[in-house]
Amino acid sequence: MTSGCIFDLDGVIVDTARFHFQAWRELAHKLGFEFTEKDNERLKGVSRMRSLEILLEVGGITATEEEKQALAERKNRRYRELISTLTPADILPGVMDFLLEARSLGKRLAIASASKNTPLILERIGLKDFFDAVVDGNRITKAKPDPEVFLTAAGDLGLSPDQCIVFEDAVAGVEAAHRGGMIAIGVGSKDRLPEADINITTFLGLKCEDLLSQVETILKK
Ligand code: B16
Ligand code: MG
């Protein structure tokens, strides 16, 4: 039976992708090239350094390790300025009701995010003390699709992987959940996240109880 729900943060609980995009795009402009929304899709769920490498690849730019550090720091300063404008109203539609229903059903709830800015984001959206466990990019050493972040979250909840389900909006995150032995709920269409066990496009109107019974059906197969 599912006892724990583990949520990715960016793209699942709150839409920070637009701020990542803005900060990366400004950096690209400073370096003299254009960075499109399509390019930005490649950065979802990917670590900050790897994101920078993809961006430099798009611009055909090579940089030393030192230069990369400085560029990543510059982007992050701008990104933190942008996310400091977040408020609880930025929690994605239906998410709060879903979380509260899950909690009322006795489920344990965790955040598992690649973002080192997780503490600031949770604070801004008023969920700093809400979750039973928070595992973020400051604590893990291996990025998704490695399952480390989800396995650590399950461990913190005191649950085994097969007692947990993962909510993810990135392809790498769905793969990480599966590699960790967990059911993956893809937050996005089947086209975008074909490997997810169940796809949802919004939390709006989604009953946790109904979703969990779909999960039970999959587990019985
Ligand atoms: P930061 P998630 C990920 O968060 C984002 O999807 C990804 O675009 C970002 O590069 C990564 O966090 C690192 O973020 O620069 O804030 O440490 O989707 O795993 O919650
Ligand atoms: Mg995400």
Question: What's a quick, concise take on this entry?
Answer:
This protein is α/β, with parallel strands linked by helices. It has nine helices and six strands; from the N terminus they run E-H-H-H-H-H-E-H-E-H-E-H-E-E-H.
Name the descriptors.
221 residues; alpha/beta; Rossmann fold; DNA polymerase, domain 1; binds 1,6-di-O-phosphono-beta-D-glucopyranose; binds magnesium ion
Describe the structure.
It is a single chain. This protein starts with a strand and ends with a helix. 45% of the residues lie in helices and 11% in strands. The longest helix has 19 residues, at 65-83. The protein contains 9 helices and 6 strands. It has 2 domains: 4-15 and 88-220, Rossmann fold; 17-83, Putative phosphatase, domain 2 (DNA polymerase, domain 1, Orthogonal Bundle), CATH 1.10.150. The model has no long low-confidence stretch (mean pLDDT 96). Helix 1 (17-31) crosses helix 4 and helix 3 crosses helix 4 (65-83). The chain is α/β, with parallel strands linked by helices and 221 residues long. It has a 6-stranded parallel beta sheet with strand order 3-2-1-4-5-6. Magnesium ion is lined by residues 8, 10-12, 44-45, 169-170. Residues 8-11, 20, 43-48, 51, 76, 113-117, 137, 170 line the site of 1,6-di-O-phosphono-beta-D-glucopyranose (B16).
Mean pLDDT metric: 96
Q: Return residue spans where pLDDT drops below 50 for at least 5 consecutive residues.
A: none
Strand content: 5-15%
Shape: globular
How are the strands of the largest sheet arranged? 3-2-1-4-5-6
Fraction of helical residues: 40-55%
Please identify the oligomeric state.
single chain
Under CATH at level 1, the class of the largest domain stands as Alpha Beta
CATH architecture of the largest domain: 3-Layer(aba) Sandwich
Number of domains: 2
